[in-house]
Design goal:
This protein is about 45% helix and about 25% strand. It contains four helices and six strands, in the order ββαββαβαβα. The mean pLDDT is about 90.
């Protein structure tokens, strides 16, 4: 099963909303959904708490035979992933359609 998480609010993922994202992802895992596309189109900034949440979610997905693909990340968000040294272990797609196609392979 593939689910696109497109309900991430515009702005940033930080301590003010990371628990909501974690709860959403945990709810998917509880239902056995481990193939997830996270649409970052509207996200302008991700704080360390957001990166931690997404990294843990990715590890959970991979540990259960799934994956997480990040779609439509802005240049700024990609640069932050790169500065943290984790861009090379994550999968990015240029847009939501591409991510869904990639996940179906």
């Amino acid at each position: 099963m593939i689910l696109a998480c497109t309900d991430i609010e515009a702005g940033s993922i930080d301590s003010s909303n990371v628990e909501e994202l974690k709860s959403t992802l945990d709810g998917l895992f509880e239902r056995g959904v481990y193939r997830i596309v996270v649409d970052l189109e509207k996200v302008e900034f991700i704080a360390s708490s957001g990166f931690g949440c997404l990294r843990i979610a990715r590890d959970t997905a991979l540990g259960n035979g799934g994956d997480i693909i990040f779609a439509d990340a802005t240049r700024r968000v990609r640069e932050i992933f790169e500065l943290l040294g984790i861009a090379s272990i994550l999968r990015f797609a240029p847009n939501l359609t591409g991510a869904l196609e990639w996940m179906r392979k």
